[in-house]
Design goal:
18 helices, 5-stranded mixed β-sheet, 18 strands, 455 residues, single chain, alpha/beta, Cobalt-precorrin-4 Transmethylase, domain 1
Length: 455
């Protein structure tokens, strides 16, 4: 039996605190604005080592070595939640002590203990080049001599025959094109998804800190600029709402409550206009205002003992079974919205609910959420639940970063795929042209702890 109370939001996700990407800040150009952000995070975060190392990296870039050393050593013996910090911390200290063989060896040997981490290869490639096998290779005392030896090996004698051995040249290496990508400061939210997709695909895409040097520029989180052409990969709720408007739950209802939050007011008005065209009575409510219950009680007649014959009603009387709720919001919003809708409805177990959302994840099928989402219809562009097209990305990302990806990380994946001329998109993209991304709206039905395609 499903019991709904005013405390229904037992496990509701809230906004996470601001965090930054170690990879991004470790390689980007030093900026005083970044220093202020990192100093603020150092004061407020329990992960002191992470932000101290990034501050040390900032001072290392601008040549203030003593300040860099101070921050790199201050929390050196503390743990960090970010595995890349251990690699970066030890490499930078090794670089600072490059003229002290003993100290340098201590830190570089420590950095080389993390070879199994993807962050190890990332920083190794960046600081030492793709030919390096370990961080020790960054500090070979006579690289010129090593290169000279390599260049002199021009022939090999085999069975008394002379065979030319090709020595890679600088021009050979340039044949492997590297794409340069710039991300503006307002788009930091997608950086993790970009880096994860680049790394998993072993793609030759590098981040640069000057937009003038970049072939690709990302602005406003979802806008990708290639040459002078801008394509917006942001989520358009229009196709989702058009499909939801003709759902049989909606068309067979006498009254529809459209439930939104502050960020989806315009989308709520859009579907309100759609339903007016169909002659379906409806009302728009911002559930965060707390007025949905009053609106429902004014419109819906609840028979005593759930028996309508006790009432003098006519064909215009709206009973609980004549009502459908449509909720509009992002993945986080619907996880707060649906429990509240069931609390408001007089028939919480049987109430008809339709959702339009950017994506849906596996967590709505767990013990905390499934009782609320059972029998709900969901219109979305992405299913990242088990067996869904986004599941593998979600699992990999979660294992890598320790948190679930939001919609921006999936969009980041698709932007990188587009840059690489790969059409294996996650967010149901069917066409990209004239600066527009068209997606296919999909309908799912929540049943037996699975997302089934609507029939």
């Amino acid at each position: 039996m499903l019991i709904i109370s005013g405390c229904a939001e037992k496990k509701i996700l809230t906004d996470t605190t601001l965090d930054v990407s170690t990879k991004f800040y470790a390689i980007k150009k030093a900026d005083k604005r970044d220093l202020k952000v990192l100093e603020r995070l150092l004061l407020g975060s329990p992960d002191k080592r992470k932000y101290a190392v990034l501050i040390g990296s900032y001072y290392y870039k601008i040549g203030e070595i003593e300040k860099s050393k101070k921050y790199l050593q201050k929390y050196y013996n503390e743990e960090s939640s970010d595995p890349g910090i251990y690699v970066l911390n030890n490499y930078l200290l090794g670089a600072i002590y490059k003229d002290n063989n003993e100290e340098r060896a201590k830190y570089i040997n420590e950095a080389d203990k993390y070879k199994s981490l993807s962050e190890y290869r990332y920083f190794l490639n960046y600081f030492c080049g793709k030919d390096a096998h370990t961080f020790k290779d960054c500090f070979k005392e006579d690289k010129k001599e090593a290169n000279a030896i390599k260049a002199e090996i021009k022939e090999e004698v085999t069975d008394n025959k002379t065979t030319e051995i090709a020595v890679p040249t600088e021009d050979d290496e340039k044949q492997i094109a590297t794409k340069a990508l710039f991300i503006d400061k307002d788009s930091y939210q997608i950086i993790n998804g970009l880096l994860y997709t680049i790394e998993q695909g072993k793609l030759d895409i590098k981040l640069v800190d000057d937009s003038n040097e970049a072939e690709y520029v990302i602005n406003d989180k979802t806008k990708l600029k290639i040459n002078d052409n801008i394509t917006d990969f942001g989520i358009d709720y229009g196709p989702l709402l058009d499909m939801a408007s003709i759902d049989d739950y909606i068309l067979n209802s006498k009254y529809v409550f459209i439930v939104v939050n502050d960020r989806q007011i315009n989308e709520g008005k859009y579907i309100l206009d759609n339903l007016k065209l169909f002659g379906i009575k409806s009302a728009l409510s911002n559930y965060e205002s707390g007025r949905l219950k009053d609106m429902y009680d004014r419109v819906v007649v609840v028979p005593a003992n759930n028996n309508a014959t006790f009432y003098d009603y006519n064909e215009n009387t709206i009973l609980p079974d004549n009502v459908t709720f449509i909720g509009i919001g992002n993945n986080d919003a619907i996880k707060k919205m649906i429990p509240y809708i069931r609390y408001v409805a007089a028939n919480p177990q049987d109430v008809k609910i339709v959702i339009a959302t950017d994506y849906v994840g596996d967590e709505i099928l767990d013990n905390d959420y499934y009782p609320y989402f059972r029998n709900v219809k969901i219109y979305t562009y992405l299913n990242s639940s088990k067996f869904g097209e986004g599941y593998d990305f979600m699992e990999g990302y979660k294992n890598y970063y320790g948190e679930y990806p939001d919609i921006y990380q999936y969009i980041a994946h698709d932007m990188i795929k587009y840059m690489n001329n790969d059409n294996e998109f996650l967010t149901s993209i069917k066409n990209i042209s004239d600066g527009r991304v068209d997606r296919e709206a999909k309908c799912f039905y929540v049943n037996y702890r699975m997302l089934e395609r609507c029939k």
